[in-house]
Amino acid sequence: MSELQVLDERQLLGKTQHELRMVANTVGRMLPSVASLTPEQLADIVLTYADTIRPTFIPLLSLTWLRVQSPEAIHACRSNLECEVGEDHPAMLDRFVTPLWEERIDHSRRMQAKQRAGVLLSYAEKSALYGVSVLALLEHTSAAFMPWLADAGRKLQLTDFTYTQMHGEADIAHAKDLTQAVVSEALLLNVTQDILVKPTQDVLHLCRAMFCVEQY
Ligand SMILES: [Fe+2]
Fold this sequence. Notes:
Helix content: over 70%
CATH class: Mainly Alpha
Largest sheet: none
Mean pLDDT: 89
Bound molecules: fe (ii) ion
Number of strands: 0
Number of domains: 1
Order of helices and strands: HHHHHHHHHH
Number of helices: 10
Structural class: mainly alpha
Radius of gyration: 17 Å
């Protein structure tokens, strides 16, 4: 690899890291304060998140893993998938929200979440780069969202916090791997401009809907 190419990769990595951090900050600011919401409003957001992410994240990772070509992106998807499946994160999320489920089954919210889950999965079909970009964005926004989710859980008197506890250090490692994956996949395709623009719009739109931002 020539010096110029190494420099290009570093620049692209720096730019991608910066853009991902900015999106995570935007999502952090988007979240309504836990103290300002009623338990019903908090439960709505927590369940909306669970209904959207629980059935979607592993399929999105798997579909993207099948499509990516760079060794870094293959590694990032596979190691993240091993963690999601091996530790059974959907079951962890289930245990976190189960006390809310029993009281607040809302079929219209579930239908909306189903539609959002379908849209999220369609991102993996757009292209390998798009899929891995959405995954990197979600993993970064998760870092901003997990402390909020844990706070909401405490206010709602939930009891099993394994999900929010497990999504700390592992997510930081996954976010780092996925950032490199975006860069490697982009360089493989010779795409170095505006990689995250459209995926960012899609992820911010999803977050606004999941966190009921318009509503509160
Ligand atoms: Fe997870």
